[in-house]
Amino acid sequence: MDNGIKKLPEEQIGRVEIDDPTEFEQFTLRPSKKAVDEIERLEESALMAEQRLGMFLVG
Amino acid sequence: MQAPINLGALASEEDWLALCRLLGLTEDVPVLNDLLATFRGIGARGFLYEEAYIDRDFSAVYSAFYASLFHPYLKYCTRLHFFTEDLSDLGAQATAEAVSRRLEEKQSAYLGFVVLRPVRHAPVGIAVVASQKIASNPARQIDIRANYDVHVLGADLEVEGFPLTQQDTRVGACAQAAIWMAGRHFHRHHGGPWFSMPDINEAALKPADNMISRSLPAGSEFLTPDNIVRALRAMDRHPVVHAAKLDNGKTVWVRPPHEIVSRYLDSGIPVILGLLPRDGATVGHAVVAIGREIRKELVQPLPEAPTWAEMATHLLVNDDQRGTHCRLPIRAGDRSEAYPWTLEEDAVYAIVPLPAKVYMTGEVAETLSRDYVEAIIARAPEYRQRAQAAAGGVLRDITTTDPSFFAAGAGGLVARTYLTYGWKYKRRMLRNRLPAAFKAELISKQLPRYVWVTELSLPDDLKGYNVCDRKVRAHVVVDATGSRFWDSVLVVQIPGLSMFWTFNAASTIATRRLIWRATDEAKPFLPKVRGWRDYDACALPEGLPANATESPQKA
Q1: How many CB atoms lie within 10 A of CB B95?
Q2: Statement to judge: residues B27 and B154 lie in one domain
Q3: A57 part of contact set with chain B, CB < 8 Å
Q4: Model-level ipTM above the cut of 0.95
């Protein structure tokens, strides 16, 4: 917290801060292959559906 | 022009018939019948009828179309207001000022209004019904609503609801009506542009193509999804289209459509649904989803990666041909004669008019959220081990902080994903029942304008209609402007551990910073409630634990 706001007692309890790039890479999370595959499947299905329904009329 | 005003009671069947005679209804108009039945059903006991009302919407249609016809049409509309009490005392007031002041005192009894056009084939210009009254049934949840100002007899009244209009077949189809309803909501609730029906036609039909030119005036009988998207873009919306495949006339969705629609309703965004032709029609139909009818608890067995959408049995849709808050069954098994369609069998597409600066769908955000929760559960011991020194003692095994959460695992959690403003998310969470360490970290975290939030609960956390009794165990915040594949998750919180990805503002090059907080403090918190800025309505009496199953105040 910057100056001006009172330091809270809970501010540092159980806190870890990492900005070293090597450590960051060690601890950060990234989407799993399963999630990436699922996202790609969602996007492919959107493209396939659009081709079939582009002329669906509502009135 | 003097505008005659009629007042009347609606205490008996004869009163309602007298009102129909006063309106001069000579044709059976289902949408108007539905509106009258709706006002009656929510307790209308009196009406006020303005016999001449200049309606901005009809004036626009009149100057764009009716004024050009050989047959003469009137420009003036009428407007009908409903109240939960008889207004006869207005007539007993001694002065004009007293009438105006007395009417304004009726605000709490005001149920909404219907503007009637001077065209017999499509009389309903705009109608707004008080959504609070519709939602007096606790199973009914009206997600999309805005305030509408009403000025009558020098009095200012207000009604909160979602607008309904009837398609005027001379100038537009149900598609234009659906666009108009969504657009008017954005105008009222988000300060979006005001679009009349001619404005919508102009935007939808440019560039013109042969398909929409198969009717005269062009586009008056149907629109394609492209036409709808063009009109919504002109309204400063950035729609995303979810569509099914058609397989021998049957719709096949990659994800169930009720899950998709629920995410956007929870985000406060009306969804335009395209439905298959029914009842011998040659073209499909468009309606606007604005709410849901929900169960008291989830029904087992739940699907894989279940969502809050499993609570819903019906969507509430505004249907320009049938009425307001129509019950569209979600599952084919709930099909009835009351409404011709079901979402499962008949929904062909869902057009979601997102705001600008949203570059990720709710479906992708939820996929990422589940994935990150699974990963953080797996690596939690590693993160907590690293935090031991700062914790001032030995941290317990994380599974003891909330045993039922960890027993369920990521796959057993029910997800509810919605789009919200970053600042609103922060405001709500700082007033929620989260650990102090989480709030201390969140308060100074920068957030984008829009974030996707996924709340994760156990199935039993969602029982009952009282939102103060529902619980959330974990949540994930995703940057709505972020990439689908990297660097978009901002916050992950599970019982006993929360992680924050942020930028290192002190660095001259873009580097990322990771912060986590490990605590033994973990308690369920409250879900977002549409329209609530905090949780004061769920305030617990002194000494009652936050995870108590009963709360004293009903939502």
Answers
A1: 8
A2: yes
A3: yes
A4: no
